[in-house]
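Repro case for the chain-ordering regression, as requested:
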Amino acid sequence: MTTVLVLNSGSSSVKYDLLEPDSGTSLVSGVIERVTDYRQALTAVFAALPSLDGLLAVGHRVVHGGNKLYRPTLIDDQTIADIEELSPLAPLHNPPAVLGIKEARKVLPGLPHVAVFDTAFFHDLPPAAAEYAIDRDVADTWNIRRYGFHGTSHRYVSEQAADFLDAPWESLNQIVLHLGNGASASAIAGGRPIDTSMGMTPMEGLVMGTRSGDIDPGVITYLWRTAKMSVEDIETMLNRRSGVFGLGGEIDFRALHKRIETGDEAAQLAYDVYIHRLRKYIGAYLALLGNTDVITFTAGVGENDAAVRRDALSGLTSLGIEIDEQLNDAPERVARRISAERSPVTVLVIPTDEELAIARACVDVLG
Ligand code: ADP
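-- result from build under test --
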């Protein structure tokens, strides 16, 4: 049996998944929380693995690959230096990934380590979608563009959607809504992403668990100049105390719904702002694609929250989108259709599996 170990070293946790890339079976997975020492965390990961027999490679999820790193990459010292160099673009994400990679290479020096980048799928976004309308020289000097994130998931889910519909990936126009704690939308025309909601950092776009998503940059300069907040405080506020949590006091949608049921107005507002933004992006992507074949919900909220799916797409029959309430409410955990038979646009729920996609990318790299 051949296995791949997938590691996702974040700012406060290390997630691991030992899986069998052919069958997609996960043998063991887990998360080490409250990480301060990556050596200790990695030691705990390896202690949790049943066996390293048959381990082919270690796949590392890396959030930001910048302009240069977009193919799954066999890691050497230069790759690590390149990822480190990108840290200013992803200060919350790339430094822990580098620490995780360094420690994992020390523990398993004989094995190939592969980096798979969250930005990769969106590397070739059309310039009209990738560029911010700012001073060209500033943008070029500082590598400011829209990179997009969750790319591994958007790609995997859109491929699964094509499989589900028994249609070639290249033949479909798709909208993918990855709604987890982080949330992003993408428009994919014939297997090629033409827009995505996250930008230079994973802060742009949809309302998220704790991130604001789109915000007028004037708010930031105002808070800095007039409210005298430091850049760090503003960044922390926008990343950790905003979004659904900032408005409604809850990160988890299950808790948010409970509060809404008790008549909690803050929770209701959080939900309404979340849905409003989501509908704006869906509308925008319907217009960009011109003709949409399939809309797919994925990740924690997208896979589990029937109310979010219903409210995101209600009243769009005139645009060819009609949900079947019964199918939408069925609490199944497999890929499934939730649109009415007569709905011209097919709506799907597909569980994402970024770990499996990373494991398979490792196998591809190693030939
Ligand atoms: P991450 O972005 O951290 O990978 P996930 O994709 O796992 O996040 O999504 C986690 C979120 O999914 C939770 O915070 C919660 O809001 C939501 N979620 C999970 N299960 C359910 C459920 N049964 N109903 C509604 N929301 C859920």
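Ordering looks correct now. The radius of gyration is 21 Å.
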